[in-house]
Amino acid sequence: MEIEKGKTAKYLKEKREVAQEVKDKQKEFLKIKKAILDALKEDALTIDQLTQKLNMAKHEVVFYLMSLVKYGFVQTGDVDDMDEYFSYKLKNNG
Amino acid sequence: MKKKIGVYICHCGGNISDYVDVEKVRQAIENEEGVSLAKTTIFACSDSNQKDMVADINTNQLDGVVVASCSPKLHLITFRNVCERANLNKYNYVHANIREQVSWAHSDDKLGATEKAIHIVKAAIAKVRYAESLEPNKIVAQKAVAIIGGGVAGMKAAIALSDKDCPVYLIEREFFIGGRVAQWDTMFTTNETGKEVVTKLYNNLILRPNVTIFTGAEVIKNVGSIGDFKLKVKIAPRYIKDKCKEGNLQKAIDACPVVLPDEFNFNITTRKAIYHNFPSEYPQSPVIDIKNCTRCGKCEQICENIDFSQKEEILDINVGSVLMATGFDPYTPKDGEFGYNEVDNVVTLPQFKRMIELSDKKLLFKEKEVKNIAYIYCVGSRQAEGENTYCSRYCCTSAIHSSLLVKKKFANIYNYHFTRGIRTYGKQEVLYAESSQQGDIYMQSYEDALPIVSRINDKTIVKINDILTGGKEITVEADLIVLVTGMVPRADNSVGALFKLPKGRDNFFNEIHMKLRPVETFIDGVTISGACQGPKNIMESANSALSAATKSYSYISKGILETEPIVAVVDKNACSWCNSCSEACPFDAISKIEIGEKTIASINNAVCKGCGMCLPVCPTDAIDLIAYSSKEIESMIDSLI
Amino acid sequence: MISKQKITSFDALIIGGGIAGGEAALNIANTGYKVLLIEKDLSIGGKMILLSKVFPTLDCAACITTPKVSEISRHPNITLFTSCEVSKINKIDENNFEATIIKKPRYVVIEDCTACQLCEQACPVSVPDEYQFNLVGRKAAFIPFSIASPKAAAIDIENCILCGACEKVCPTNCIDFTQDTEEYQVHINTVILATGFKLFDPLLMPRYGYGLYKNVITSMQMERELAPTRPFNTILRPSDGKVPDKIAYVLCTGSRDASIGNPICSQICCMYSIKQSQLLMGALPMADVTIYYINIRSFGKGFEEFYQQAKGMGVNFVKGKIGKISEKENGNLILRYEDINENRVKEAEHDMVVLSVGVLPNQDATKLFKTDELKLDPYKFIHQVDSLLSPAKTSIDGVFVAGTASGPMDIPDSILFAGSASSEAISYLIQHK
Amino acid sequence: MAEKNMKSAKILVFSTEKISDPAIDMAGLLKLHYPPTVYTITVPCSSGIKSRWIMHAYEKGFDGVFIAADGSDCIFGESCTEKTGHIVSRTHELMKQNKIEPARLKMAAICSVCSESFVKQIKSFNEYLLKNSNS
After folding, report:
1. Domain around C252
2. Mean pLDDT throughout B540-550?
3. Contact: C240, A18; criterion CB under 8 Å
4. Domain D2-132 -> CATH class
């Protein structure tokens, strides 16, 4: 079978099953990503504010938010008066 | 003049960009004359940026390149090589130092730092505009290495080079080989004795036809440079004939009436003016200490092998590289320092080690049996007031190892350790654990209140406020106090001065860069190894010796060396031969030649070292140094203001 | 399916592309010998390339590693295999070894990848980034880190959902899911083991609460937070993204502790902690940094001065053993410790705790040799048969060790050790030609 | 620029590749601060500096020139100290002829680890130049 360049994933899919756990994790990431990005649509928020809005554990918010900063969806805003907590906002208004 | 210059300004991952506004620098120079490309980069030295530079040079046909980053001592060669890979002659590259001399030096003044960086990059651009393609001078490298110092490091390096079919001259100042290690008894981690180690190395060395060992030998002159060092070696006579049999020599030694402190045993014993170090020493021939010999003639009467007619010899040797392995001296405490030379029973760690080895059955000090031993650590190291601020690295382990040894060898020994925090790093930690388990007492003094040694009612007392027991004052009566002395540079390090070797803040010889070029020095062709570079234990010395051997070998293995083509050039029209330049040249590189009617100066490129001493003395300003011509320097000055 | 390939022979095989293996490879290659350098990770550079700055000079680690890795990757005498593991080495006779090398598929053709990161943007999967020690995420199609060498994408097949989004956007068609494991047989004359060390896993010391308390992190995680390619915009604590202002270091975590099976000192933790403390003082000028130590081991060239410099900058050094760490509701941590100076048990509150984790042996190399025994020392590091005079020699003639594979050591010592191992290997090659 | 001069003087330093420039680098490494209007041009040896370069610097507006000389550490030989001294005295003559205060040229031997000494010298030179400017 000749395999076309740029479409090789199909080939491996036939030989290798993607674990359910991996699929679930990916879906969860997309869900959290959407939730965070939605929450930030209105206003820049701190992690504390995000946590309340999303009903998630704080350290998870830190992890996902920082990942979204890394992926270029979110950017760091200002720090509070105590120099303790930053706020975060959407990059280029989404 | 260059028309297509590429300029790269490095963030250095924050090292520069935290203090210098690199984007502002870029904008300030992008419209400079000749600049066709100006970029900033997070890490100029990274592989990806180097690849980008090669691509930039090729696609934009750049004819000059400037990188503004760290000191040229680190990465000048890196970026020259980038140019070469892009087929741009490497002398079209100029390096601007905006880290060590800008961002770090002026981290207190960001605006000032940015302003300075702009000027410095502009000056580098000014310089690169005049840069010319040059070909390095090729010189023949002598395939031989001189190793200075016949201790463990020197001997290991000699074996390593000899294994690589490289002839070696091993030059030892003392009359016996082995350096400090010959003076040690058993050693951590293998419990081999120093003698065994030295014997092993010596026996290996003497079998090698390409190794020449000189003892009682000193380098007294050095002319030349990398690839071609011409050394004069002075060899002192032993006053003993070669190939003599032991028999009568021992009687001659016995007959010698001169009694002197024996330095090999750190003066705790005596020797004669005709002497051995120890029975299995190398070379296996005694020597006459001519300075202290009274020429009484007694030895000559007994032994036919004594020969006072032997003369000092001067040898010329020619090598491509020099490997320094001159070692260290143990620190000598000042009079009164923890009772040294004032209280009777205070010795240094090296003396103590000799005592253990030389004592049999009972450990005696001045005829009295020693039971309680107090060790005072960090003597001559980590000094708050004093010149040795560094830690000597080997002494904690060495002291603990000796304290275990003394306990094993003699009965009823009690060890008390007055420390400043034990530093048995790595696997040496198990020694400390073993010692603690055996009941040795460890105390630790406060940094500002070191232990006090005093003599009270014929007893020697050490007093400490001990951190480990919450600051309690503890006194110990000791039969012997061992000052755990550190390593200091050799008192006579004149051989370093002969090669102009730079020293570090600790006065040991200094490497170019601890991680990038750890055995090379600023003097091309001269490498350093072992404890002359800083305190090291034997394993560390062996590693550095082998590293240095690899480096020295790499200079000469190809037989041809490339050196910088930075030499002086004479303007034929301006020169009117007056001899001033030739007088100023320290290398005899300038002679006069006739060109038609005119007599002018001529530079021998193979001999010229590019120092520039001939430049300022020329009355007609007819000499320039390549890459440092007046037009280059003056245009740099114009850019800096 | 494994394809078998026979490839040409090399003079030297070097296992491990960290700073020691890299240095040894360059030394030997510069002498004119052909070197095969095997790295199991996606990039060479080892642990050092992931560090922030290095003691005692505070040079950035990247400034030292990147030119070296770049020189390695383009050296005509060095063949570099990443994502590869040596599965066995047989000694045939005196200086003849045969090695079997397993190359795992990267699913990216390195030569064609331009590191444009389009695949990374397209990939819908996010998993913890091991190169950032799990402080943030990365994609399943990813470039390991910005100064990786080779700088090329890779597919994390374990976490890939095989959606094909990456290859659709790849402008050079360099992604190739048809790649498979390959096996190579290589003939070599000498071997250098530069397999490095493993970091102590603080989960083995539950009393410090690592894993449970989010603000207890390892020194390697702090190293990443301080590095120029850091996971956050500044130093933040992982529990709630707060900028910490009272940071504690717990030295000897997993070192000098027979109860967890590692009685020896790790030789580097004091110094890297002191270095981090200085960098923290620079990054967070208002922060308090306290280092809890048993002994400070600043023994190398310029180290003691560096320690004194940290004291001068205001880093707080407390001689004390940490008993237990507990967490307050706000994420702050209570350290219960024995203050040795005052001879009593005390408590202190910090908002972030860094565990200065120690150095453990990497035992990967031990299983390789089938015909000869590679001896280990009592701590499971590679045994040095002549540790005083030929530190690089192992129990197998012609097989040498370099760097932390034989015990804990810092970067300067690893580099000198690599110089030493390369000298032995070159001599071995010349003597057995 | 004139305003800047009020704070710190413009000083041109001639350093040498193997000896004094490493010391100036180390001053940066140790974060020993000195005025940012101090600029360095590196040459192989301090005994190869031409008087005309120094005069050029004054002409273009430098307040002072500092020669960080190799001293006895010079890798090109011991004559360096004496020769650098001659350059300074010859330049002093030129400066007098051009009505430039000779004290605006200073020389000191800076060894490869003389970082502190370099910073001290530069700071006092800077103070001197500031005190004697505007006159």
Report:
1. 200-359
2. 97
3. no
4. alpha beta
